[in-house]
């Protein structure tokens, strides 16, 4: 009998590892299909469905098969047993079952309403990712690549507008979505679809903050392929990069906002505490990421460029350490790794050997591609493999209305205010394209899946997933026709475009005045900092270091 028990235990353990291999194999095949689809799309220049949309389609099909073609391997899996002697949930539990001791580890708390018929399906459970995988493994390379591949000259020229859209625009979107959703929640309470205590105003603001994270990866990929007007590309790319960081910190700040009395009432003390947390976390994360980038840059004094493999390895590990250190310190790793990438691109990249420059660019570009497609594949899977979806038609309809109204309240008023001060105005067709390009993607999904323990959070997750599907497929697929309809320039060379703008400014004898008006004060300070502290300048140990791009050229400072 003892041998039979041990044999059964070993068999269950082997089955567990086999299921893990099957899970990885599923994602491997999904990525292979995605890559082959991308090749076909590029070969036939098919732009009505982007690679991310295709990855979601494959994920949907696979999720459908897993959901309805697999079943629970053991009828006892998912069964709830009462344990009255335990007063709390221990991290490790030892169970004596017929003189055989088994060790179980805490995974998460499950509400009674979350227990369903699929609870014992091991395959579905395996396909439900731990949210920490998204934030600790998949998101960092995506965000770092965005900062590391930033086109500095165009970014700096439009910095004021980008910061306005990213900070003020995200706050506007969050508030507008929160207010509209609160109205819909009140209507749902009135008709009996929700209890008044289940959904508070802070929950609506939380949903607004996570849905304020734009991720126009589909649109930007098409922009890059068609060489769309550089100012439009920079505005949209810069907004999406910083907007992700702002939305993540804003979501955290709202989640810790806790009025002492009525959750739906305004509490000034709690509000200012949340604002202080937002500013402190953002500033601390910025400092952490920039500090690691400077430390990486100072390795130039070690002559590490003579060993490109070691140089690339150290660059990668220090960049990832920026993310992990910020998370360990209670800050936001995504913000830290973003500004680490921006600072690395400005200082460290120019001091790397030619081999390391090529390796780091290709490494992070590849990691970004792989992580992005894994996330979009998983989005498709999650529609069927996530076991606690709540589809509420009224909430979903309200969310679609709120997202589109919030995007309009963000783009058009802020563009009007920015045009009052900008020498080079943001034209109306640019504004329409930015309004159209407000897609939701990886960040909104990752923020929504981070907490799905309660019914309101499950409803938010389901709704966020549907909005991502709709915007990626419909708006992403309609990008090329919209560019044609709005008569936006394509086939533009970024460098020639920048030289042409500088020449026209010089010809009109407004170069100096325009420079002072349009050059961002933050980077004028950065320019002065570089000249005051020459130890950050280019290394002379290696002969093949890249020529440094001066901020004088970037900002046209005479």
From TrEMBL:
Transmembrane segments: 20-41, 53-70, 133-150, 162-185, 235-255, 275-295, 369-388, 394-418, 430-449, 461-479
UniProt keyword terms in alphabetical order: Antiport, Cell membrane, Endosome, Ion transport, Membrane, Sodium, Sodium transport, Transmembrane, Transmembrane helix, Transport
Cation/H+ exchanger transmembrane domain location: 33-485
Pfam families: Na_H_Exchanger
One annotated Gene Ontology cellular component of this protein: recycling endosome membrane
Superkingdom of the organism of origin: Eukaryota
A biological process from GO: sodium ion import across plasma membrane
Gene Ontology MF term list: potassium:proton antiporter activity; sodium:proton antiporter activity
Membrane topology designation: Multi-pass membrane protein
Subcellular location: Cell membrane; Recycling endosome membrane
Family: Belongs to the monovalent cation:proton antiporter 1 (CPA1) transporter (TC 2.A.36) family.
PANTHER family: SODIUM/HYDROGEN EXCHANGER, SODIUM_HYDROGEN EXCHANGER 9
Official protein name in the record: Sodium/hydrogen exchanger
Organism: Anas zonorhyncha
Phylogenetic placement of the source organism: Eukaryota, Metazoa, Chordata, Craniata, Vertebrata
């Amino acid at each position: 009998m003892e041998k039979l028990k041990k044999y059964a235990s070993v068999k269950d353990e082997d089955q567990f590892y086999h299921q893990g291999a099957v899970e990885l194999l599923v994602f491997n095949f999904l990525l292979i299909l995605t890559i082959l689809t991308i090749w076909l799309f590029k070969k036939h220049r098919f732009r009505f469905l982007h690679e991310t949309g295709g990855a979601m389609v494959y994920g949907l099909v696979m999720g459908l098969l897993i959901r309805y073609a697999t079943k629970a391997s053991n009828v006892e899996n998912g069964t709830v047993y009462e344990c009255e002697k335990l007063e709390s949930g221990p991290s490790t539990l030892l169970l004596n079952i017929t003189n055989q001791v088994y060790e179980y580890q805490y995974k998460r708390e499950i509400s009674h309403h979350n227990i369903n018929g699929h609870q014992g399906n091991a395959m579905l459970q395996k396909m439900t990712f731990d949210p920490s995988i998204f934030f600790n493994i998949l998101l960092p390379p995506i965000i770092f690549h965005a900062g590391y591949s930033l086109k500095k000259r165009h970014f700096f020229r439009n910095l004021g507008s980008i910061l306005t859209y990213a900070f003020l625009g995200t706050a506007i979107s969050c508030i507008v979505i929160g207010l509209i959703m609160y109205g819909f929640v009140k209507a749902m309470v009135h008709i009996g679809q929700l209890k008044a205590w289940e959904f508070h105003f802070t929950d609506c603001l939380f949903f607004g903050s996570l849905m304020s994270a734009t991720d126009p990866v589909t649109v930007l990929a098409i922009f890059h392929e068609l060489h769309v007007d550089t100012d439009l590309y920079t505005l949209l790319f810069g907004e999406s990069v910083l907007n992700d960081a702002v939305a993540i910190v804003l979501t955290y700040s709202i989640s810790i906002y806790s009025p002492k009395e009525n959750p739906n009432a305004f509490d000034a003390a709690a509000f200012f505490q949340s604002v202080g947390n937002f500013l402190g976390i953002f500033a601390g994360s910025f400092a952490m990421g920039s500090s690691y980038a400077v430390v990486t840059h100072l390795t130039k004094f070690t002559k590490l460029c003579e060993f490109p493999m070691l140089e690339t390895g150290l660059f990668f590990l220090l960049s990832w350490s920026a993310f992990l250190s910020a998370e360990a310190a209670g800050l936001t790793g995504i913000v830290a790794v973003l500004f680490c990438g921006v600072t690395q691109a400005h200082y460290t990249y120019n001091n790397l050997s030619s081999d390391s420059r090529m390796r780091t660019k290709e490494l992070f570009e590849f990691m970004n591609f792989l992580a992005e497609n894994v996330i979009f594949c998983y989005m498709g899977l999650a529609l069927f493999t996530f076991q606690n979806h709540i589809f509420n038609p009224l909430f979903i309809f309200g969310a679609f209305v709120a997202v589109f109204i919030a995007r309009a309240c963000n783009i058009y008023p802020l563009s009007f205010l920015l045009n009052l001060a900008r020498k080079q105005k943001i034209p109306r067709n640019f504004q329409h394209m930015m309004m159209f390009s407000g897609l939701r993607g990886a960040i909104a999904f990752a923020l929504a899946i981070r907490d799905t323990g309660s019914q309101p959070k499950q409803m938010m997750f389901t709704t966020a997933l549907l909005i991502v599907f709709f915007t990626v497929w419909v708006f992403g697929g309609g990008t090329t026709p919209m560019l044609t309809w709005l008569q936006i320039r394509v086939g533009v060379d970024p460098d020639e475009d920048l030289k042409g703008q500088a020449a026209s400014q010089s010809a009109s004898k407004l170069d100096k005045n325009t420079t002072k008006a349009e050059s961002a004060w933050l980077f004028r300070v950065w320019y002065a900092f570089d000249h005051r502290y020459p130890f950050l300048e280019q290394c002379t140990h290696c002969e093949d270091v890249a020529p440094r791009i001066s901020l004088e050229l970037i900002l046209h400072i005479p």
